[in-house]
UniProtKB/TrEMBL annotation:
Chain ranges passing through the membrane: 38-62, 96-116, 128-144, 150-168
Superkingdom of source: Bacteria
Keywords: Membrane, Transmembrane, Transmembrane helix
Name of protein: Peptidoglycan/LPS O-acetylase OafA/YrhL
Ranges of compositional bias, category Basic and acidic residues: 1-14
Ranges where the record places region Disordered: 1-30
Amino acid sequence: MSDSRADETDDERRKRGMSPDPILPGQKPPKITVPKPVAISFWLWILAGVVLVAGQIALLVLKDELTEGILKQIRENPVPGQPADPAQVASGVNTLLWMLFGGALTFAVLFALFAYKAREGTRSARTVLTVGAVFLVLVELLILRGSLNVFLLVSTLLVAIALVLMYLPSVADHFPKVGRTLP
């Protein structure tokens, strides 16, 4: 490396598609200049994860009302040859709600982790967040289309805004495209 490039900042190296200089033991990591839209996006991803988990906690709190509503629908529209066992319905609702809570918690942790990495300028983290956002929208539209879960709607809106902020032209230099060379 020539002397003119030895004193480059990590931001300058990233713009050229290079990784930041390694941090040696005892050295402090250099300060990364995070564009304002990316910083806002980071906090929106965190907030979206919190809202998602809060929504699942709300559903767990309302578990008895949900179970009663499902049992009422089963009684009103019975399936011939399949009696409604309230204990089985309650167990199924309980299992489903805990699985959804685990999924929401997983999404929240992944959103936080990859939003942090995207704030550092990692392009692949932005891609992972994009896939997560698409998955969240598909879950809402295809699986939970009949429910009016306000928490899920708010979380999806926050994710959409956060995603748009990460793809603005003004932040393109923060996510450099690394060229690949074949050996």
